[in-house]
User: What shape does this take?
Amino acid sequence: MCCKYGGGASTQEIDNPESKKINLEQLKIRDLDLPKKYEHKIMDLQTTFNEESFSLDKERMLNKEDSERFIQKAYSEVNKEISTLKIKSAQAEKVTAEIQKLKNYLKDFKNGVQLILDAGKTNTQLKSKRSTKLEAAPLSQNQRIAFKKFYESFDTLNSEGKKYFSDLIKTSEMTISKIPLYTLKHNSRDISRQLQRINWEGKSVEFKFKNLKGKKNSSDGNYGWGNWSSNPFSYFYEDEKTWREAVSTNDEAEAAFESYMARMRFPCLGSTLLGAKMVEHCYSSKSWYESQLNNSRSSVEYHISRWMISQMKYSL
Assistant: This one.
């Protein structure tokens, strides 16, 4: 199915197999010491000023007024340059702190990226009903948090210079392909609020408003979210139809799993007395229904994660 991510990047751009180039084995972030670079420049300027101030030729020094004017002007220029460098140094400290913070999430980000890449290489439809292989495992809670942190950091660095994030990608030996530039549809604060609404950083992402803790059932459409414009998923899906198809697939998988468990509860009742292996044998198709449920959940989580990566102007 072809659809567009919010902001104008199409799935063809993001799913292009030729652009799926990430060196995950050597994914590292180099320690940046940007503030010291500016400190050295400031010291060099001060040294240069001192040397120039005291190496005036004798002829100029004979004119006290000229020498004082020269020194005052030179001092003023050096102070301006030092002030500029101090501002840059402060900005560099923020950038360095942001990049250092990302190190805490790098491993989970890397593993999450690998899951999405692996899923893209295989057919997510299980070939046999009794297959126990999970074609697309949902992202873990930590992996979802890591994607959000990388996205938020990108937005923070954007205001101070996107080149630092580009340097981060390069020095991490990541060869993620850039996608065509486009205007970002939302800022990170908007996105963070929507991710919070769907419990993105919680134990599991909630597709339905009524399933959220403390929320009452709603008679509104869109699974309790109301109009599409007020639906948090509208930030990540280009249109309502595509989102509905993804969530209805999850509904079907949930219903099939619950129906199977209810149907087998009585026939398998006696197996509980014969041990875990007999229970597993009796519920022999359980893993298949679970895999279908995982596939349906992961498709939504992967979509949102890919969307965040596309907002960083990169593609897997």
The longest helix spans residues 64-121.
